[in-house]
Specification:
The chain is α/β, with parallel strands linked by helices. The protein folds into 2 domains: 196 residues, Rossmann fold (3-Layer(aba) Sandwich); 149 residues, Rossmann fold. The protein has 12 helices and 13 strands. The longest helix is centred in the C-terminal third of the chain and has 38 residues.
Length: 388
C-alpha cells in the first residue's frame, strides 16, 4: 500500500524561480516516483506570491492541494522571528491555520507529514501518533543573520535567524529530520536522538554537449539581496577581466534577481523568471556561481551539473558539492582565478566538453544517493509507524 504524504510549506512548488522552490518540487517528484501519494499544503502570506505562481500550483496539484493564507507565517517577513517567540513559550502565530490543517490531514489520512523549514515545526502538533512527523530543514538557521551581517547583508525585519536553543526546541517536534548537506546532518544530530537523514537534491538530467564560443555565460539568481550582491560582484569585479580576453563575452541573468538590477553593462542581459531553463542552459557556453555569501546546499550549482553544463564556482557557490571540485566543475577561490577559469572554458573546446561529461557523471551519482536517502526515509518512517 502506497504511503500518503502531506508536505506543508511556506513556499509554493511553482513557479520554480528560486532554489528553495526547486528543492521542494524535486522532493515531491521523487516521492511520487517511489510510489507515494503526495498532498501539498501551502501555508503562508499568499500576497507574496503572484497569480501565475498560484495558478501553476493549482494546475499541477489539482485536488491534492490546499492553500492556507496567514500573514503570520511569512517567508519574506517576520516568520522566523515569530516562530522563535513561539518555541520560547509565547503566543504561537500558526494557531489560526491549525484547525484547517488538521481537517485536511484527517481527510487524507496522512501516514507522513513533512514541514519545509524549521520555523513551521510546531505545525506538526496537528498530527497524532499515527502520522510520522518530519522536518525538511533546508538550512541551519542558528545565528544566520549574524553570518549575513559579517558579509554586509542585512534584512528588515530580521527574518532568517534563530538562537541555538530555539532551533533545538523546534527539532523536538519531529520524529525524523532531513538535512540537505552532510555537514548539516552532523549539526542536527547533535540536537536530537531522532534519526537525521542526509537528503540532498535530485536534479533533472541532460546530455553532454558543447555550445558555441558565441554562447553566453549564464547566472541564476533568486529575488534576494544575497542574489543581487552575488551577481553584481561578478559583473563589477570579474567580468571585465574576462572581457579583456574574450571581447564578445555576454552574461545572461535568469531568475527573480533580475527585478533588483538596474543600469547593467551592455553585454549583460536580464531574462527574468523562465520556464525553459533546460534550453537556456543548453544554449549557454557555461554556468557560473560567483556567490560570495550563501548558506545551505547550492541548488543552482547542482542543477547546472545536471544539465551537463561546464560550471565555474567559488567555494561558497559549491557548498555541499565539494567532492566534485576540479572534476565535475572548476573551483576558483579568488576573482582572478575565476576569470581565468571562465576564459579557459571559452578557449578550450576539449575542456568544455570534458567538464560537460563529468558534470553529468557527478549528477547521476548524486541522484542515486538521493534516491537511496528517500528509500531510507520511507523505511525509517514505516518502522516508526509499526512500533506505535
Amino acid at each position: 500500500m502506497s504511503k500518503r504524504i502531506l508536505v506543508i510549506s511556506p513556499i509554493p512548488t511553482h513557479q520554480q524561480s528560486a532554489g528553495n522552490r526547486v528543492r521542494v518540487f524535486s522532493f515531491v517528484e521523487i516521492l511520487r516516483k517511489k510510489g507515494a501519494e503526495v498532498f501539498f499544503a501551502l501555508v503562508g502570506n499568499i500576497s507574496n506570491f503572484s497569480r501565475a505562481d498560484l495558478d501553476e500550483l493549482e494546475d499541477y496539484w489539482g485536488p491534492n492541494v490546499r492553500i492556507f493564507d496567514t500573514e503570520y507565517i511569512d517567508i519574506s517577513g517576520g516568520g522566523l522571528a515569530s516562530f522563535s517567540r513561539s518555541v520560547a513559550g509565547d503566543d504561537w502565530p500558526g494557531a489560526e491555520v491549525e484547525d484547517a490543517l488538521q481537517n485536511f490531514a484527517r481527510e487524507i489520512q496522512a501516514d507522513m507529514a513533512v514541514v519545509t523549514y524549521i520555523f513551521l515545526a510546531r505545525l506538526l502538533e496537528c498530527f497524532d501518533s499515527s502520522t510520522v512527523k518530519i522536518i525538511d530543514t533546508l538550512d541551519i538557521f542558528t545565528e544566520r543573520n549574524e553570518k549575513m551581517a559579517a558579509h554586509g547583508i542585512t534584512y528588515e525585519p530580521a527574518q532568517s535567524s534563530l538562537r541555538l536553543e530555539h532551533e533545538s526546541a523546534a527539532i523536538s517536534y519531529s520524529d525524523v529530520v532531513l538535512a540537505i548537506k552532510e555537514e548539516d546532518r552532523g549539526f542536527f544530530s547533535s540536537l536530537t536522538d531522532s534519526p537525521v537523514i542526509h537528503l540532498g537534491h535530485n536534479v533533472q538530467l541532460g546530455t553532454p554537449h558543447l555550445a558555441s564560443v558565441a554562447a553566453p555565460i549564464v547566472f541564476f539568481g533568486s529575488c534576494s539581496q544575497i542574489g543581487k550582491r552575488n551577481v553584481l560582484h561578478f559583473i563589477e569585479r570579474i567580468l571585465p577581466e574576462i572581457q579583456s580576453d574574450v571581447p564578445d563575452v555576454r552574461l545572461a541573468i535568469i531568475g527573480g534577481v533580475c527585478d533588483l538590477l538596474e543600469e547593467l553593462p551592455e553585454n549583460c542581459i536580464t531574462l527574468g523568471i523562465r520556464g525553459d531553463l533546460a534550453q537556456l542552459c543548453t544554449d549557454a557556453r557555461l554556468v557560473i556561481n560567483s556567490d560570495v555569501f550563501a548558506t545551505g546546499l547550492s541548488i543552482k550549482s547542482i542543477t547546472a551539473l545536471g544539465f551537463g553544463k561546464p560550471l565555474v564556482s567559488t567555494p561558497i557557490g559549491a557548498r555541499g558539492l565539494e567532492d566534485g571540485a576540479h572534476s565535475a566543475y572548476l573551483l576558483a577561490d579568488n576573482d582572478h582565478a575565476f576569470a581565468e577559469a571562465v576564459t579557459r572554458i571559452y578557449r578550450d573546446d576539449g575542456l568544455a566538453l570534458r567538464l560537460s561529461e563529468q558534470a553529468l557523471t557527478y549528477a547521476r551519482r548524486n541522484n542515486r544517493i538521493v534516491g537511496s536517502s528517500v528509500d531510507q526515509l520511507l523505511h525509517v518512517s514505516s518502522e516508526i509507524q509499526q512500533s506505535r
